[in-house]
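Action item from last week, closing it out:
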Amino acid sequence: MSAENQKIHAIQQEPEHKGNTFSKQRLKWIAGVAFTFFIALLGLLLALIPGFAYVGQLACAIIIAIIYRQIFGYPEALRAGVTFSSKKLLRLAIILYGLRLNINIVLSDGLGLLLRDAFVILFAILMMIWLAKVFKANTTISLLLGVGTGVCGAAAIAAVAPIIKAKDEDTAIGVGIIALMGTVFSIAYTIIRPVLPISAVDYGTWSGISLHELAHVALAAAPAGKDALAIALLAKLGRVFLLIPLCFILIYIMKSKNKSSNHSSTQIAFPWFLIGFILLSVLGTYVFGHSIPVSEGILNIIYTLTTWLLTAAMVGLGLSVSFADLRTKAMKPLIAMTVTSVVLSVFAYFIV
């Protein structure tokens, strides 16, 4: 075959080669996303076992992901799909999470609670920042834990992480610690409830303004009755509502820091997913069920999908965690958060 014919043959084969490469990359991407959902499924199955039910699907899945990483290493062949889950699916989950926030209820019935919620968030973040300096703990993880403790656990950490440029492993460590501590505290609340000299409604308020995740609030408040659970969830919704202004405040602070440090190369990208979060909050509050009737069943399907997306995203983050980093970076923030959570619970008890 002449040189010219070889060139023509190579050109003819090039599109086929590119097509095969694209097809393989797409298959790896699909396999990576599927892998995160598979571990999310294992997390769900583990959470069905008595004892692990208190931990929840999300925490169980992230634990499995971290253990997998230590035994088998990071699945490099699936990196594209895993990264997609930990980045894109995470933002989609945050957007859908907005449907859980009823703005009208928070503004009309919970203004007093909203004020206390604001104090709780400010207290948790400032105390975590201060203790991070005292213990010389990892600043990023400590800030994430402060936000998670003050606002709404993993969802708040996930929303704030891209704003403060947190590494995936730091985000995963923060989510893992929040899940652990929230579970411990919610169980402790249910144990001490019978001996507390407060009414069921006040107990619900205390749970709602001090516990970490929405699930932890429900777990702690449900044994006290329907009224306690209702006020607890209302108090918690107020903290979720305050996530919106908190994110914009953090954006302003980060941009100000970059300007003062002349770090022009580290611009803070606007978290557009927050607009989606706000939009769905507005739709869920004023449109769905009013102008556009939406059944409870459909909303429950969306809530379930949100949980699965968030769990798959956390799996992606968990796969980036190494035990070496966990030992060196997590212990001091864990101690700081334990102290913060205890003091916060006492502080919240006296402002109820």
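Closing note: The CA atoms of residues 142 and 333 lie 5 Å apart.
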